[in-house]
Amino acid sequence: MGKELPEIVSARDVCWGQDAAMDAWLHHFKTENNIEHLMNPENVASDEQLRFMVALDDQQVFIPCSDETLICLMEEKPSGDLMREYGRIWLHTVRLIRKHAFNKYHERKVMGFCRLRFQTHLSSRIMIPSRLLKRMNSIVLTQCSLVDPSSGDKVAANRRAFDYFNTPSIDRLLFATPSECMYNPDLRNLRSELDSIELVRLMYLSTIPELWSSSTPSYLDVEAEINKPCPTAHSLDVLLGSEKDDRKTILFLPESSGGIVFDLYFIRALLRQGHKVILALKEGFLFDSPTYWDAMQDPVLVELCKSAKMVANDTISKNLLLALLRSHRFLIISDGMREKLNLYKTNVTFSRAWKECDIVFAKGAANYDNLLNCGHSFTRDVIGFYRKKDGTFVLEAKPRAGSVRKFSEEAINAMASRIIESMRKEKEKGRSVMFYSAIIGSIPGETDTAIKVVNTFVAHLRSRLDSTFIINPAEHFEEGMDGDDLMFMWEQVQRSGMLDVWRFQTVEDIETSFALLDRKVPSIWSGKDSTFSTGCTKEMRIALDVQKRNPELQIIGPSSEKFFRRAEYGVGKYYDAGITSM
Q1: Which of 45, 194, 471, 578 can pair with 49 through a Cys bridge, CB separation 3.0 to 4.6 Å?
Q2: How far apart are CA 177 and CA 447, in angstroms?
């Protein structure tokens, strides 16, 4: 491998700029696993989007696998565990080809192609197993013209699980009141206790694959299983809270078909308790994993999901997601993936769902590995649960990073309301209200300079304009707020009807600011104005919309036509996603 890599014991230890050999390995690792945003910006999450989900320091690198897998990948000699996992992937690939090849010649051709690709990856030993599985699946699906070769098996598993759940015996077992609950003297505590018992029992049932296989276990065995104590179940009570606490928004990540039926009854129980739930299904085929299209085509899932709002938009905005959560307490989205959980490959909607939720329920061993068996901290509390091969049920919670501050919709609304109230008071004094839209983060690495430029020019305007109340967005920044939060807050302010003048930054404004700072205009700022900012472009659209309802609003700055060459602002960024063609 060349220079020996530094010892890494956890993914949280991986950072840029500490060791040249490690940096080189990381570039190789990200490139080979196709998780480098700069090389594939359309399909790989940016660092800003990742920070919706993962708590990362400035130089920290997110590794989308368990600590154990990372250590195996970094070993100079082939790891036995890693090679066995690669071997299982090859077995899956062979079975898929033999089951779905058109004829013997076609089978030999596809098998040969897959073998060549597999040997290439095997020799490098840099591929995360879940990424290799996805890559091999993609080759087979393309070569065999398949969409979802497991659809029939999944439909059958869901039907068996549904029929089993709706038997009188399971109904009796699930809802039987434990004798110890009869001694609870407080009705409210009793209600919470019974709710918790129901949730744990449903978790138990949802992780017993025999319940949707061709041979189901005895009811006596099931009764014994669901009445086992769960020592870690208190984490559910702590995170979900009592009926006195605010209800939670939950992002639920399922594991398999069959089990998804019990998951949906689990979700119904959460909804009955007043919580909101976002169910994230796979974008496409991953063996028995339930997909977004299954929820629209499988008769059992269609029935169980009839109260849900299906969200097909995979780049949903914060405004629209919050609006949907206000009007629907159960949403179903695609996670954007055809592989095991990999936060680099999730779509924008999934990332925003994660950011807006309070708790992530991650079901299955793969999700558990990637979220709880890794050293990274996440921006939301995570509850992972699955059943080991020996039948042991595991439930564990991982608290969100202590440094993370979540801005709820109510908190952002309160910030907006305070600004609107200050505008109202100024108007009552007879002052005009001006909003100043300017570049803040549109030039990567120049955010501090941009804030100085804006503050300097606004101070200059205030010294020249009489009876004018100027809103400078740079003066209302809250630590921890990202571009999504800020745009959501400012749109409320901008649509309040309180604005008399909306001024957009011009080239002349920027030149004046640097002159007041006694500096020449740096080359990177030369010719820039608010049309360079995608955030300002979004604000220009809002300004024109507001002007239709309030024709007296004066819009000052570059002409509106110059703005609309810009794309949507980047996810979680203060700067641009890109420039579209005119």
Answers
A1: 45
A2: 59
pTM of the model: 0.89
Neighbour-count burial of 19, counting CB atoms closer than 10 A to its CB (0-12 exposed, 13-18 middle, 19+ buried): middle
Per-residue pLDDT, 563: 87
* Residues facing residue 398 across a β-bridge: 382
3-class state of residue 20 by DSSP: helix
Q: Which two three-digit tokens encode residue 14? A: 């991986």
Give the per-residue pLDDT at 182. Answer: 66
Whether residue 403 contacts residue 95, with contact meaning beta carbons closer than 8 Å, is answered with no
Bridge partners of 471, per DSSP, are 435
Strands 393-398 and 432-437 turn out to be unpaired
∠ CA 339-240-250 to the nearest 5 degrees? 30
User: CA of 456: how far to CAs of 270, 523, 533, in Å?
Assistant: 51, 19, 19
**Tokens coding 105:** 């010649």
Indicate the pairing of strand 330-334 with strand 276-281.
parallel
Q: SS3 for 64-114, per residue?
A: CCCHHHHHHHHCCCCCHHHHHHHHHHHHHHHHHHHHHCCCHHHHHHHHHHH
Tokens 């998804």, located at residue = 260
What's the alpha-carbon Rg for the chain, to the nearest Å? 27
Only one residue has tokens 């009839």, namely 306
| Exposed / middle / buried, residue 261 (Cβ in 10 Å: 0-12, 13-18, 19+) | buried
| pLDDT at residue 442 tops 90 | no
**Buried/exposed code over 371-388 (b: 16+ C-beta within 10 A; e: otherwise):** bbbbebbbbbbbbbbbbe
Tell me how far apart the alpha carbons of residues 364 and 264 are, in angstroms, rounded to a whole number: 15
How many other C-beta atoms are found inside a 10 Å radius of the C-beta of residue 249?
21
Rounded CA separation 536/506 (Å): 12
H-assigned helices in 406-474: 409-428, 447-464
DSSP letters along 270-319, please?
HHHTT-EEEEEEBSS--TT--BTTHHHH-HHHHHHTTTSEE---TT--HH
